[in-house]
From TrEMBL:
This is DUF1549 domain-containing protein. Residues 17-37 are annotated as: Disordered.
Length: 588
């Protein structure tokens, strides 16, 4: 590196500027000026739902046929929610009725999807009872939990890995995602920045790989051969390299610019300029001219030295895709899939079209789509019970929770001593081995928790989560969900550790959390006390009241326990094991 370029690099990463509590460096930091993309006051959350048109509903899997009467009926409803607008001609207008959800079940589902864990009965009452559903959804969409959950979702999409990517770039993209879900950056602007962000360009080896990754992220499919090769020309300037961080004392992976399609004087080369030009979406040339920032014989430049106007020019790939209808359709399809667990946009294309119009109405504020789906009848249906039809939108979603949801629910509900992992830092050992005060300070300000001896981070949470598909290191693959002998054994072993049903370990959850407040652990169990203990745990773990069947079961076991002279603790710990290992803690 030339002395001038070296001095520029040192200035860019100088210790006076580097803040281990906020190490973000990159194009995302400059995005958004703090103003809102939209008002954030989204319509559609207070629709009055109609009764189904009194006609013979379609049977089996037959495609509903909305005739003139159906269309007239739906037009007359004046529905504001785009999901309802699109769904009417395949639901109420053809004589089909949805299955309304119970309030407790709805609140529990929303907590998992937005907050990232199951609520207790007390939280259900405080957050949902006595409020309109629109108020409940808006309050949670305004929470930091909503932002953090979406940051983790995009971390999975981008495959954050601190050995493949600079930690500064990861933090920068994470901050950009935060701006997106606070309504400070429009979705098409976000995609443009992401298309030229080192988190994407450095994560993949070739120009074609980068083009393909962009298609997967924002078009929901692999590119055709012509699309891949054409878009790859706009990624021809990117290459992979490393830089030495003077404050962290680490060598970090990062993206570099190699000057292509220019001659020895740095002018556009007419013989090779086509290699840097996309023609599939109009004529789009992407060529940068080298200057003193270019280093050595290769003429490469570290991306950390790019100017704002150069970053903007490099974002052409994302802006080109954002002009396509399929780009916006993919944006809403991804939100549909996350909340409903099935592809409603393909089954009922009118829903997808209405949501795209809704998103554009709010200037690309992606929160509008989240609000529309979370307040829609498609979301607010129960998955319990049989239906008279095979149409998927006539009953609610049933999904498997992520590993972090399950662990965080247990940790929160029982105040159980369990650490966390940080989606931005895949392997904290790299920071620990850096022998730098700033590296340790960065780690301590993250979600990783240091051990008492200060020699390493706590790995109780991450080791368990990674066995269950969560907290991915993203070295090769990412997150996974599976029900298998291995995962079931892992879950049962952890629940056994937490609940300590035999009362022999002594390191389980505090017994006070498993018993009602006024019950002593040594109290003699009676059928009435057994009911009280089980009701307390169901309300804490499941966030709902106890059913009649559960009450009868508690009475039966309480009677058996009374004759065996059981203590309250001896009843509460096996009860905890039974509840936490049930399917209701794994699916919602």
């Amino acid at each position: 590196m030339t002395p001038l370029v070296l001095s520029l690099a040192l200035v860019a990463c100088s210790e006076s500027e580097f803040d281990p509590r906020n190490p973000a460096r990159g194009p995302g930091s400059a995005a958004g000026d703090g103003s809102a993309v939209s008002t954030g006051e989204f319509v559609g959350g207070t629709d009055a739902l109609p009764a189904a048109l009194p006609v013979e509903p379609p049977q089996g899997s037959a495609v509903p046929d909305c005739g003139a009467e159906c269309l007239t009926f739906c037009d007359a409803q004046n529905l504001e929610n785009p999901v309802h607008q699109g769904l009417c001609t395949s639901l109420w207008g053809v004589g089909l009725e949805p299955q309304p959800i119970y309030a407790n079940e709805a609140c529990r589902r929303l907590f998992v999807d937005v907050v990232g864990r199951f609520p207790t009965r007390g939280e259900v009452n405080r957050s949902c009872a006595g409020k309109s559903w629109d108020e409940v959804v808006n309050a949670l969409l305004d929470s930091e939990a909503f932002v953090e959950g979406n940051q983790r979702w995009w971390a999975d999409k981008f495959l954050y890995n601190t050995r493949a990517l600079s930690i500064e770039r990861i933090y920068d993209m994470d901050a950009l995602v935060g701006k997106l879900y606070r309504g400070q950056v429009a979705y098409d602007h976000f995609a443009a920045i992401a298309s030229a962000h080192p988190v994407l360009t450095r994560r993949h080896d070739t120009a074609g790989d980068r083009a393909e990754a962009l298609f997967h992220l924002f078009m929901g499919r692999p590119p055709l051969g012509s699309e891949r090769s054409d878009l790859a020309r706009l990624y021809a300037l990117w290459t992979n390299g490393y830089y030495d961080h003077p404050t962290l004392g680490m060598r970090l992976s990062d993206a570099y610019i190699r000057y292509r399609c220019v001659d020895d004087e740095g002018q556009i080369d007419p013989n090779s300029r086509g290699e840097c030009t996309s023609i599939l979406y109009g004529y789009n040339e992407l060529i940068l001219s080298p200057d003193v920032r270019a280093d050595g014989e290769d003429g490469q430049m570290w991306s950390g030295l790019l100017r704002a106007d150069e970053w903007e020019k490099l974002q052409i790939p994302g802006r080109l895709l954002a002009r396509q209808q399929a780009f916006w359709e993919t944006a809403v399809d991804q939100v549909i899939q996350r909340y409903l667990g099935y592809d409603l946009g393909t089954m009922v294309p009118e829903v997808r079209q209405a949501l795209v119009r809704h998103l554009l109405r709010y200037n690309g504020d992606i929160r509008a789509v989240h609000h529309a789906i979370l307040t829609s009848v498609a979301y607010l249906q129960t998955a319990r019970g049989l239906t008279d039809t095979d149409h998927r939108w006539t009953f609610g979603p049933l999904k498997q929770v992520d590993a972090e949801v399950w662990l965080d629910s247990i940790k929160h509900t029982l105040d159980y001593d369990l650490s966390r992992c940080d989606h931005r830092i895949s392997d904290p050992r790299d920071l620990l081995n850096a022998d730098s005060i700033s590296a340790i300070a960065l780690l301590e300000s993250s979600d990783w928790e240091m051990r008492d001896d200060g020699e390493d981070v706590r790995r109780d949470y991450s080791d368990l989560a990674r066995n269950l598909g969560g907290c991915p290191a993203n070295e090769v693959g990412g997150r996974f969900k599976i029900v298998s002998i291995l995962t079931t054994a892992t879950q049962l072993n952890f629940v056994n550790q937490v609940c300590d049903p035999a009362g022999a370990r002594g390191d389980g959850a505090a017994i006070e959390g498993l018993l009602p407040p006024d019950v002593h652990p040594d109290a003699a169990v009676t059928p009435a006390l057994a009911q009280s203990i089980l009701e307390h745990q169901i309300e804490r773990f499941y966030g709902r009241p106890m059913t009649d069947d559960e009450r009868a079961m508690a009475t039966t076991h309480g009677d058996t326990c009374e004759r065996a002279l059981c203590r309250a603790a001896e009843f509460a710990r096996p009860s905890c094991f039974a509840l936490l290992s049930s399917s209701e803690m794994l699916f919602y």
